[in-house]
Amino acid sequence: MGIILKEHIHYSLLITENWYDVVHEERKNYFQKSSLSQIKPRFFKEERGKDYPCFRHTVTENEVKIISDYFVGIDWFTTDKSRYIQVEPKLNDKVVESFEEATKKSDTFSDREIEEFNGKVEEEIKNSSGKKEVDVIGMLMQIMSHAEVSKHTGKLLFVDWEDQEILINQKQDLLAPFLVVRFLNLLKHIVRKGLKKSYYKKQDNLRNRVKGKILVGQQIRQNVFKNRLTNTVCEYQVFGEDSLENRFLNKVFIFCTNYIENNKIYFKEENEIFWLINYIRPSFEHIGSEINIQDIKNYKHNPFFKEYKEAINIGQQILKRFSYNITKTTEEEIFTPPFWIDMPKMFELYVYAQLLKDNPELQAKDFNYQFSTYGNALDFLICSDKKKIVVDAKYKLHYNYSQVHNDIRQVAGYARLKKVKNQSPQLNEEIECLIIYPKPINGIHKNNLNLGELQWDEINAYHKVYKIGINLPVIEQNELK
Fold this sequence. Notes:
The protein has 481 residues and is an alpha+beta fold. The chain has helices spanning 93-104, 111-127, 136-144, 147-150, 175-193, 216-224, 244-261, 272-280, 293-297, 306-321, 343-358, 364-367, 401-414, 418-421; strands spanning 2-6, 10-16, 30-32, 43-47, 50-53, 55-59, 63-68, 71-76, 84-88, 132-134, 157-159, 166-169, 198-207, 213-214, 231-240, 333-336, 339-342, 369-373, 376-383, 388-393, 432-438, 457-458, 465-470, 474-476. Strand 18 (369-373) and strand 19 form a beta hairpin. It holds the Pfam family McrBC.
């Protein structure tokens, strides 16, 4: 039985001695006491000596409290596989509103006023029901459309292929479309450069000639026994595109197109994904798809074709995801391995792609993505001709007033580091700071992060510290039913 959560929310389960005595519909709100020791923590990554758990939990005498924070995905909650946890990408609009409200207030709040503000916001967040879900796949498509940004996507996803799979509805699945989008964008880069040509073995029943080596066993069965004495079954090498690796990529491409055609939630007609398919398809028209999967496992990669290595790796994951059976791409219920997606990282890359798109005069090196200094890492240190800006992309917004201002002070502190100040161009005046945060609720107009045109909203309590909200692609809740 699943425990379904939204992002950045607390969920409580009442502890019971015998979970099976509870009415079936209510079991989702209870937790078996004997299973407390089997709660399974999962860590997504470790950075700078700090662990990042996929979810957190606390246990009291009467309840288990689960807290979802920075990641979306699905995993086993207990080692006995009796309960699983799923975190959906629904960013609470009240969290965004509280962030905006906190930044408009001065930094001289009394302790009582701060306590009242936090209490009010916490209650609003608790009672808020999200009707829209952040379109993670839509974000990924924008990220993958920029080659400079897409190379940072390797650590966005964690999958435990060895753990027991979980049965879910196909509409709840984020792993398959995530892998499909990454694979198709890698194929786009491969096709743009041209498919790799190499020598590969080919078998043919030749008439009146011999080429390569004769396959004696097949020759006897196909020709000698049937009195075709002028034919010879031969195996010989050919130099061309119909090689083992290209046939494998074509096989996975067929899986991907079939999956997209049968899953319209994330892949609508107006999506760029259909343009991508039409761009790739002509290059594989004369490539076969019949291969022995075992052969590709022993395939040795050529360092001159780096995209092939990653594409084949993701292609193997896609085939494994569908158990090497193309009919699995159309089923309503599917089994998925536990997986997690790093949403703050996803938002950083989404902002990066938007900045590159809206500022064509700047190159990737001008943005200094993940500029490191003294154990800290700035999301972006933008250095253009005569301007320098410290940019922090905040996906998770705290409702707690003090935490909001701690985040702002952290960004302002980055701007005072000598290593940041000495980065070209060197300026005497204060470096401007910009916080970019998500606004997925009323996302109707298009984003514009053109640094020369931005109308920044200055945060009242700080000098030259600004904020701007950008819209995220969303999916209506009724589309997910």
